[in-house]
Give the backbone structure.
Amino acid sequence: MIAPLADSQRVVITGIGLTAPNGNNLAEFRDSLLAGRSGVSPYEIRYVGKTLAGVCQFDELRYQKRKDVRRGTRAGGIGIYCAQEAVRDSGLDWPNVDLSRVGIYVGVTEHGNVETENEVYELKGYDYDTKFWSHHHNPRTVANNPAGEISLNMGITGPHYTIGAACAAGNAGLIQGAQMLRLGDCDVALCGGVSESIHTFGIFASFKSQGALATHDDPARASRPFDQARNGIVVAEGGAIFVLERFEDAKARGAEIYGELVGYAINSDATDFVLPNPQRQAECMQLAMKRAGLVPAQIDVVSTHATGTGAGDVQECIALRQVFGESKPTLLNNAKSFIGHAMGAAGALELAGNLPAFKDGVCHATINVDDLDPECHLAGLVTNEARETGGVQCILNNSFGMLGINSVAIIKKV
Amino acid sequence: MKAEDIREAVAQILADIDPDEDLSELKDDVPFREQLELDSMDFLDIVMELRKRYRVQVPEEDYGQLASMASTVAYLEPRMRDLEKV
């Protein structure tokens, strides 16, 4: 058991803003997850043609002018929407918040592909004469763009940057925010992850070439982690930004607290570009629990990372059985089965979608499991229908990415 | 293109660059920057769009000529008079 932290070192979530393919705020998203409502739809993108994707329908003009939408990036626009919604949700007295003490830490899987592809496509029309290459290219493609657009939109003068962490980025953004609060680098952290990846043909084409792009006649059934008939990833866009504060600050202002980040870990496989390493994934979960002073039996819900690929799901299940095999109370679910893989936003969105379980005591399901792959057997896997629990105290959120990056965040009810 | 066509072309570019502004009240003799929220990147958009749409190259030393609608049309008129209206 580790010594309890001082209130000044405890970090809590006090606000959530999100857009997912099946909901543009936490209430809508949660409702879709409990109702089994998919957000995957037919989609078409240049060169690749007809495919499937998780597409968000949030109101871009709620917090941005048309001119800013035109000038900026989709990732920036998603980040702005989520950050603005998160701040409103937090109940912070924003006009009186010292904006130099607000930090912005946004996880991204990739950034710049969309804008570069668009510019090259345009340039083709001018016979590749670079005189026609936009002066907007650099500000749109710098790696800090999604975080920087939030700073510009909201007048936040504290630190802003992105955390490039492949598909582990949503958790990585959250973790960075917590670390900066503990270091005293900021008093409010806006953190999480965003994805504009459905707007780059390259990500679809690359998954297709890898044999990892999902296809199905029914879009809603295409993303099917753990199912025998799974055949790859459905790419999604989206975002989730959390407001993090120190527990003492949140308590002092009487904030509503979603939960406390009691443990986290990031490690590396150091074994393969794409094939996950279950041993390292297990070690990452164990390290996060050790830091939280928790044992597997105290984890009520595990939000799995599984993306619906043949090998990836099996690897994670090996890790999950190693860690939670003997833990009867632990339930496991998966949000990608509803919305596809929201890349840099995935970890943050999937965590957000589970947090209402602290109040409603329900574990949402992983849908589209018609024929469970025996290699994906997990004792507590909640398939197809949401399940009432006896109450949720701790949620463990897995988020893993290419090049062997693993991230785990554990949130506890306060 | 006649002067009035060029004015219309520039107005369309402005409308595309700054879609939130009402350009119906634009005064031709008053600098753009005194009437519209245009920064240097927007200004470069005007230059780029003239290049893309009309293949008109405005060298950097001439940027000052694009200060207002009147000066822009006057500057562009000899460079665009032989173009067909798009």
